[in-house]
Amino acid sequence: MSNSILDHLRSTFTPTAVSELSRALGEAPGPTQKALDGLLPAVTAGVINRTTGQQGATQLYQLLRDTPFAQDPTLSQLVNVGDHRQKAAESGNGLFKQLYPDQPNRLAEATAQYSGVSLGSAGTLSGLVMSVLMGFLHQQFTSRSLMQAQLTALLLGETDSARLAIPTGFAALLGWLLGAPRPVSTIPLRTETIPPASRDDHPAGTVWWRWLLGALALLALLFLLLRGYKGDKTQPMSESSSSVASDTVASDLDGNGPEVRVAIDLPGGRKLSVVEHSFTDSLARYLAATGRQAPRVFNFDNLTFETDSARITAQARSHVDDLIQIMQAYPNLQIRIEGNTDSTGGEAINDPLSGERADMVKQALIQGGIAAGRVRTRERGDTKPVASNQTAAGRQKNRRIDVVITKL
């Protein structure tokens, strides 16, 4: 899809929103986050699994076509208004039961067993995830006028990413929901079995064009998803290496290369889906390695700010949430956030602005549950550019954050 299903769900169930949700449910933040870390990919994979058969694919298509979905609310709205939250959870659970009528309570039971939340909270969380997921699929379905075969092909294209993101301990409880893994080579053939009309309505000689349409849909999906290889952006914190890091970051941020997403295992059973060799990928791999040393500096290359402002751009919010999850998985980790600006404006403006940006990131981490004592800040102004300040694209790259590992 043009937007990854999991990316959309994670942008809704941010660590800050999950913290508010845990309070509304009377649960501790840790078990609530653990439950959602499992539910987001598991519910996604379970819905996709239903499309592997003609009956399930048709049923999902009809649900998206006929269900009157309300405008997608934010999770904060669902948290703050109990009636809305309950209705959304009931709606999501109702849709789930239509797809899995023989398993009405097993998902909530597995979630409670895996995460430690109560059975009632597990039911609410699973319903909310299903409600947000189906609302997103409905928006994609209507805005792109998808036919059943197109919808199915696009969903099947996200099978592997959803399955890989499910924590192992949770996946072991969900065989009934996930089904058996399918070889990628079978996907184009499966699209042939799900047109709205019966196969008997068409001559046998016309079946080939259905395969062709399915294959073309998958090729289009691959073209959108595959974005290229990036270089590693970790470096020892020393003056001699600063120019190398700047060159690497400038080339990585030019947007010309394809991006490859990978699943990262974190301590405690969490998983992240990140761009290979991005900031979060490099940081997580460094922390998991043996013989690591501090200090170490990482260029937070996908965290950007609005011009002349300390406001983090909307596109960068999910990357801050990834950093929160990494710090939650490594409770002894301490960092220093260094703010940088472009050269627009004088030193009297840029220096305090870079400090405000660093403080803004620190506040986002604190709101996500990270202790304030684990995070320090520093303003650097426009003294460490990584690209030319003569272009708009270069100035955007220079409005950035460096994360320094100070203690492991």
From TrEMBL:
Its main location: membrane. Residues 375-396 are annotated as: Disordered. PANTHER family: LIPOPROTEIN YIAD-RELATED, STATOR ELEMENT OF FLAGELLAR MOTOR COMPLEX. It is found in: Cell outer membrane. InterPro entries: Bact_OuterMem_StrucFunc (IPR050330), DUF937 (IPR009282), OMP_bac (IPR006664), OmpA-like (IPR006665), OmpA-like_sf (IPR036737). It comes from Spirosoma pollinicola. Residues 292-408 form the OmpA-like domain. One of its GO terms (cellular component) is cell outer membrane. Keywords: Cell outer membrane, Membrane, Transmembrane, Transmembrane helix. The keyword Transmembrane helix applies. The chain crosses the membrane at residues 116-137, 208-226. This is OmpA-like domain-containing protein.
